[in-house]
Amino acid sequence: MRFLFLALKFSLLALIYLFILRIFYFIITDLRNSAKTNTALEELSDAGIGAELVVTESTVSSLKTGDVVRLGRETRIGRGRNNDFKIPDSFVSHNHARIIFKEQSFFLEDLNSINGTYINGIRVRDPLPLKTGDSLKIAGVTFKFARWENEVE
């Protein structure tokens, strides 16, 4: 009986240590992702290039009209934790879409999401270039795309 209690104590202690290690893992991963995003934003800013998404409509309580998402060289959107911008909505795929900067333009690409990604009401099937004023819709969230004014066309 004593052996059983000793085994339970060590098992509980091991679970506590695993829990603490897991918390540190998530903190370190989050800090690394944040540093990568900041570096990408600084590179674009230094080059005088930039863009953002502005929330114009939202059925998601954590996103309000007027919220702004700055875009980097690659901005992944979805509800999974590995995305640069997370939308906590069950209609958003874990890896829903991405916006990439290449050839002096920003392109929107749907990542085979179930409910689709839309530009100006048209479903995105292939990567499409974004223009200032374009309306993007992902599930219950609508964004307006805007490029920074100091960018040279």
Structure description:
It is a single chain. It is elongated and about 70 Å long. The chain has one helix at 2-46, and strands at residues 51-58, 68-70, 74-78, 85-86, 97-102, 105-110, 117-119, 122-123, 128-129, 135-138, 141-147. The model has no long low-confidence stretch (mean pLDDT 87). The strands form two sheets. Strands 2-1-11-10-7-8 form a six-stranded antiparallel β-sheet, with no helix packed on it. The chain starts with a helix and ends in a 6-residue tail after the last strand. It is α+β, with helices and mostly antiparallel strands. The protein contains one helix and eleven strands.
Major sheet attributes: 6 strands, antiparallel
Mean pLDDT: 87
The shape, in one word, is: elongated
What is the N-to-C order of secondary-structure elements (H for helix, E for strand)? HEEEEEEEEEEE
Distance between the termini: 77 Å
Biggest sheet strand line-up: 2-1-11-10-7-8
Give Rg in angstroms.
Answer: 21 Å
Low-pLDDT residue intervals, each spanning 5 or more residues: none
What helical percentage do the residues reach? 25-40%
Strand segment tally: 11
Instruction: Output the number of helix runs.
Output: 1
Structural class of the secondary elements? alpha+beta
Strand content: 25-35%
